[in-house]
Write a structure and sequence with these properties.
heterodimer; A: 228 residues; mainly alpha; 3 strands; 4% strand; B: 1051 residues; mainly beta; 5-stranded antiparallel sheet; 4-stranded antiparallel sheet; 65 strands; 41% strand; disordered N terminus
Chain lengths: 228, 1051
């Protein structure tokens, strides 16, 4: 995000980038949530630049553009200040933090393993809750059973998302992912087993025939004692 | 009405058969149970199994919410007025339902009532000493005195006679014998004198020693202490006896022989004159007793009345000096002059009804005549000594549906101007009772409803769309008001007045008595066929009579026609929706089985006779409702006549076509109780040449089951209700095992006893009496199961439903009543247990079954003791057959007891296993428990209970119960509680208020949070955000001032 300050000598605007190149690295990381741009606090203060020459608003002499254009330098109208090259910045940055990145990928793979093992704790807790709930069908046991079925399912759906932060071409995420999936499947199995102990799984013949209507009779017979 | 307070038992999830067990809200309890399971498992299970038994119970204020009870007395036979005293004016009546009742003369309400029972027929009633009602019943063998004001029994005397005879009762008005006024009774061929004060025997005169005399009249001439008994010996000799009233000594006996024989009764004309018909019914014999001599004088009726035929009857109205004669042409009044001449005074129409003479003040006598006009009746009162003119003549408008007048009783009162006024109690053809006074109907009672023969039900019409807005607003307002009141009541804020108002709203809910179909199917029409041949439609909501119609088809012939059966004729569901539902009434004109029948189809909404098919040529001994319908949704019916021919109705080509298509599989059977034979028949497809019409089919005998007459006599049969719905063919037992029920509509339960034991209980020793029960397939005649109860006898009451039969009998060895159950299971399907095959549908469970495939069956049975003797047994029926069942037992005390079917489960065992307990099997007990809360009639009695009908409501949990006898009672019961609906007293207002409050709270908190959010957001960038990190502080140094400045400007 370039902050444009009015030139003192009336020569025009000069970006702050030239002053603090590191600032943009800092700024690229989300430090704080952006404010919603509402009409009352329209902080998308765009002070119109003189270069643009259009709609110069009377007494305004400067503008701050909060729109982040730093990632798309080609669209920028303003050339980089002298002595500052974007490429060198990146190179500079990567060369500076290579070691740091190695540490980070280590840290990431470690974290990924941690995340992969997290369902185990969940599993244990679920098992305890199920044991507490007993084997009769009531609100509590049904709630627990369904959450035991639902949690692994939703977790499996979001496998990619869970491991997103640790995605790195240097980190092998397959093994933690597999562990994660296996543990969640285990949780699901536990839920299914619970469902079975509650007697909610159709595993008996009675579950399949109890809704069958009586067979149709071919013959009809009526009558009885003579009416008096 | 004094409803007793019946405590509500705690609500628990009931049986395992109930589909969705209500979620228990006792989570902590359940947790505790789960944890304590290991420790105290058996104890807890025991507690659970005992608390699982659902009982009906209601609170005191719930009485009348969904039940109604109506009290009737039946067709009045005798009436005695009691109007002398200044107190309450009343009339004491005895009826053909053997009821003695005291009715309020002002409003017709029942002061008190006693139902004497079917075999205690009331012969005569009278009032003695002005305070006792005297009744003579059971062919004159029981004399009772009831206190007039409250109906308490004062005394009872059993009169023993040497042989049976007619019963006569005379209560002398002003006779005093030693400070006592005796009651003279002739019964059992004896004259008894009974003290009216305490029922003590004074004396007895036995006529058996005097030859076989049959006394017709007892006469007490005023002022003397002699009783005259006039009778006939061998119908050829007149006898008069004079008996002293103090000791019963025979004073004088005179007799005169009359070789022509006599017909009917001797009628007294005056103290010493009598008239009687001879055996040919063409000669009137006037008997005069003069100086101890009997003179007989014969007059040919044809001399008196020209052109009269043989059907002459002397009417029993006692008018002094006059008698009335009914011939084919009309009724003739004949005066007997002092010289013994007979003079014809007047001829009136045949339908005229004459009352007894009523003594007026100055030795005068009056009597009433009722004449039938078009839509009105003419009541005229005449004085006996002045027959020429009417003393009083009134015309009263009369409903056509009440038919002719059958009986009239009159009573007089003295007007303010000292003239006599008369009130008349009339009994109509439909058995209703009316009081006429001053040309007005003061009150009416629909007592025909005391003799219901058959019951059918009908849906109500669908509600018309388009209700006025004002009505909706009004009802909405009323609804809200009612619920606000209820809310107040719930929160204990209501004043006593408001509590009363709440109760009133609940009882008189307009919702339940509306004439439209409701969503739950609680509102229906009960269509009742009564003995009088009248059809009534009662609303199940409040029991009011919606319409009533005297069936013209049963009145057209001169013979006595009576309705015998009521069937659903047309129930429009899918097609023919413009048609109203209708019922078929089958009647019989005559007393024998071969009498011609009368058929009538009646619209169930309006009561109009749509089709009057009677009298038809054939007789009817069976009415079979076939499971086929034609395109207009008329049910096909087969009427079997005495010659075993089947007549098809409706008589349309379409019906004949349907029937011929299906006739191969139509069978019928007859139970010949006297001969001890069951016979099965098939219907021949084409009508042969000797059948009268193309809708008449010959049948052929296929099988017979002959019970040996020396050892077995059929005393009861029962089949499944044809409209019963069974939800499933499988019964899930412990460990998820399955048993397949043998569900067949063609199953007949037959009970036989040894002939010696067919009498009342105690007539046979235990060794002689054997009860045998059979389950018979009525298509093939195959006996599916046979069971013998040694030392048991009838009467047997049974109910057959699904695959079980429960029957009630007397166990002579144990001296107790017993109830047994037989459950029958299909063994040929038992192999269907492979789950994979079931999943892919490779099973034979839904293929149609034929009785000829002779499926193998097994049975399970068990017997229990039962405390009550039983009048009727029925079972609840629900729309889908899912809800568990209750037996409805009409007890000897005329109440209806609901007994959970699980109590009569053949699989109950003394030590149920764990799995049995989980299934909900109760431990075996020797007797069935009677839980006082499970009387569905709660504090009411359905006097003279004869039958219990159950009708499924649309709501699966609920069944409508209608019990009938002399009284009618209707309620609805939910055997597994109303698991599919909110309770009646659910507080919708509270729910609405809660929802409203929650919505308001949501809005308020949302607004508050928005405001807070906004404030936070305004303060955030200025104070916190920019100060957050030190790196940004540097930026702040650079640009905070202008930004702040700008923001301030922008504000």
């Amino acid at each position: 995000m370039p902050i444009i300050l009015p030139a003192k000598g009336g020569k025009g605007a000069e970006t702050v980038e030239s002053i603090h190149p590191w600032l943009f690295e800092v700024r690229s990381r989300p430090l704080r949530p952006r404010l919603p741009y509402r009409s009352s606090l329209s902080l998308s203060l765009q002070l119109l630049l003189m270069e643009k020459g259009k709609g110069v608003m009377g007494s305004r002499k400067w503008a701050v553009d909060f729109t982040d254009n730093s990632s798309t330098p080609s669209t920028r109208d303003i050339p980089d200040p002298p002595g500052f090259t974007r490429a060198s910045l990146d190179q500079d940055d990567s060369s500076l933090s290579r070691q740091k990145k190695d540490a980070e990928s280590n840290w990431k793979s470690q974290k990924a393993w941690e995340v992969a093992q997290a369902p185990f704790k969940n599993l244990m807790m679920m098992g305890f809750m199920m044991w507490m709930a007993g084997s009769t069908v009531h609100l509590f046991s049904i709630g627990i059973t369904f959450s035991a079925l639902w949690q692994p399912l939703s977790a499996l759906q979001g496998v990619g998302k869970v491991f997103e932060p640790y995605k790195d071409n240097k980190v092998d995420l397959l093994a933690p992912k597999l562990l994660y999936i296996a543990l969640n499947l285990g949780g699901m199995l536990l839920g299914v087993w619970k469902l079975n102990t509650l007697g909610l799984l159709p595993t008996h013949a009675s579950d399949w025939v109890s809704s069958l209507p009586p067979a149709h009779e071919v013959e009809f017979s009526g009558g009885g004692v003579a009416l008096h | 009405m004094d409803p007793k307070v019946i405590p509500n038992t705690p609500k628990h999830a009931s049986s395992s058969q109930i589909p969705p067990p209500p979620f228990s809200l006792f989570i902590p309890t359940n947790n505790l149970i789960a944890m304590a399971m290991a420790i105290k498992l058996p104890l807890i299970l025991l507690f659970f199994s005992s608390s699982l038994i659902p009982t009906f119970s209601l609170f005191e204020d719930q009485v009348g919410l969904m039940d109604w009870h109506q009290r009737y007395i039946g067709k009045v036979k005798h009436a005695v007025f009691h109007t002398q005293k200044a107190g309450r004016k009343r009339v004491v009546v005895s009826t053909e339902e053997n009821v003695i009742a005291s009715l309020d003369l002002r409003r017709g309400e029942i002061f008190w009532r006693h139902v004497l029972g079917a075999n205690d027929v009331v012969d005569k009633i009278d009032i003695a000493l002005g305070k006792y009602v005297i009744t003579l019943s059971s062919e004159g063998s029981i004399l009772r005195a009831w206190n007039l004001p409250d109906g308490q029994m004062v005394w009872e005397s059993f009169l023993s006679g040497s042989k049976s005879s007619k019963a006569l009762l005379t209560v002398p008005a002003n006779l005093k014998v030693d400070l006592d006024s005796p009651i003279i009774v002739y019964s059992g061929a004896c004259i008894h004198a009974i003290s009216s004060i305490d029922g003590e025997y004074l004396w007895k005169k036995d006529f058996a020693s005097e030859g076989s005399v049959d006394v017709h009249q007892l006469i007490l001439p005023g002022g003397s202490d002699v009783v005259h008994a006039v009778g006939v010996t061998d119908s050829s000799q007149f006898d008069t006896y004079e008996i002293h009233i103090k000791n019963g000594g025979l004073l004088k006996h005179t007799s005169a022989s009359f070789p022509g024989g006599i017909y009917g009764e001797i009628l007294p004309i005056s103290g010493d004159r009598f008239v009687v018909l001879d055996a040919s019914r063409s000669v009137l014999v006037l008997i005069t007793i003069e100086n101890g001599q009997i003179h007989l004088e014969q007059t040919h009726i044809s001399d008196l009345i020209h052109g009269s035929s043989g059907n002459t009857v002397i009417l029993p109205s006692k008018l002094s000096g006059i008698f009335s004669l009914r011939t084919d042409n009309g009724i003739v009044f004949i005066k007997v002059t002092d010289e013994g001449k007979l003079n014809v005074m007047e001829k009136v129409d045949k339908t005229v009804v004459i009352s007894d003479a009523l003594p007026l003040s100055e030795g005068e006598q009056a009597f009433a005549l009722v004449q039938h006009g078009d839509g009105k009746i003419e009541l005229s009162v005449r004085l006996v000594h002045d027959m020429s003119s009417n003393h009083l003549k009134e015309t009263v408008k009369m409903d056509h549906e009440r038919g002719f007048v059958h009986k009239i009783f009159i009573n007089n009162y003295v007007r303010t101007d000292r003239s006599h006024g008369f009130r008349a109690l009339i009994v109509m053809e439909d058995h209703s009772l009316l009081l006429l006074q001053q040309g007005e109907i003061v009150w009416t009672r629909d007592d025909g409803l005391a003799s219901v023969i058959d019951v059918a039900t009908s849906e109500l019409p669908v509600e018309k769309i388009g209700v006025s807005v004002a009505k909706v607003e009004h009802s909405l307002f009323e609804w809200l008001k009612g619920h606000m009141l209820k809310l107040k009541g719930t929160l204990m804020l209501a004043t006593p007045d408001e509590v009363a108002a709440i109760q009133k709203i609940r009882l008189q809910s307009s919702e339940k008595s509306r004439m439209t179909r409701d969503h739950n199917g609680f509102r229906r029409l009960l269509i009742l066929l009564t003995r009088a041949g009248k059809l009534y439609a009662l609303h199940t909501g409040d029991g009011r009579v919606v319409w009533s119609t005297l069936l013209q088809s049963l009145r057209t012939t001169s013979q006595q026609c009576a309705g015998i059966k009521l069937h659903q004729w047309q129930v429009p569901h899918h097609h023919a929706l413009d048609n109203n539902p209708s019922v078929l009434v089958v009647g019989r004109c005559g007393l024998s089985l071969t009498s011609p029948s009368a058929l009538s189809i009646v619209d169930a909404y309006t009561g109009k006779e749509l089709q009057n098919m009677g009298p038809v040529q054939h007789s009817t001994v069976q009415v079979i409702s076939l499971p086929f319908r034609d395109s207009s949704e008329q049910q096909l019916h087969l009427l079997i006549d005495a010659d075993k021919r089947a007549h098809l109705y409706p008589t349309t080509p379409e019906a004949a076509h349907i029937f011929q298509r299906e006739s191969e599989n139509v069978y019928w059977y007859s139970v010949e109780s006297e001969a001890g034979i069951l016979r099965g028949y098939g219907v021949k497809k084409s009508h042969s040449s000797d059948t009268p019409s193309e809708y008449c089919f010959e049948t052929r005998n296929l099988w017979s089951v002959v019970f040996p007459s020396e050892s077995e006599k059929i005393i009861g049969t029962v089949t499944r209700k044809p409209n019963e719905v069974v939800h499933t063919q499988a019964k899930v037992i412990a460990d998820e095992d399955v048993m397949y029920k043998y569900i067949s509509k063609n199953m007949l339960f037959v009970a036989t006893v040894s002939p010696k034991a067919s009498g009342p209980i105690g007539s046979a020793t235990p060794d002689e009496s054997v009860l045998v029960v059979y389950l018979v397939d009525t298509v093939t005649g195959r006996i599916l199961h046979r069971m013998t109860h040694l030392g048991s006898q009838g009467p047997v009451h049974a109910v057959l439903s699904e695959n079980w039969v429960v029957y009630h009998y007397f166990n002579l060895r144990a001296h107790r009543y017993g109830m047994s159950i037989i459950e029958i299971y299909d063994q040929s399907r038992a192999e269907n247990k492979d789950i994979l095959k079931l999943i892919v549908g490779k099973h034979n469970l839904t293929t149609p079954v034929s009785s000829y495939s002779r499926p193998e069956v097994t049975t399970k049975s068990q017997s229990y003791f039962f405390t009550h003797s039983v009048k009727a047994i029925s079972v609840t029926s629900t729309a889908k057959g899912i809800t568990s069942k209750h037996l409805l037992i009409g007890t000897i005390g005329d109440q209806v007891l609901a007994l959970d079917k699980r109590f009569v489960d053949p699989r109950r065992s003394l030590n149920p296993t764990q799995a049995d307990k989980e299934e909900g099997l109760l431990p075996l007990t020797d007797a069935l428990p009677i839980i006082p809360q499970s009387y569905v009639t709660h504090s009411f009695k359905v006097e003279g209970l004869r039958g219990i009908e159950t009708v499924p409501a649309k709501l699966e949990s609920t069944s409508l119960v209608f019990a009938y006898g002399v009284d009618l009672f209707h309620t609805r019961i939910a055997p597994s509680r109303t698991y599919d609906s909110l309770t009646e007293d659910f507080n919708y207002a509270l729910l609405l208020l809660t929802i409203l409050a929650l919505v308001v709270a949501i809005f308020v908190t949302w607004v508050l949070s928005e405001r807070k959010d906004l404030q936070d957001k305004w303060s955030w960038p200025q104070t916190q955000l920019w100060l957050q990190s030190s790196s940004e502080q540097r930026l702040l140094n650079i640009c905070s001032t202008p930004v702040n400045m700008f923001v301030n400007q922008n504000r």
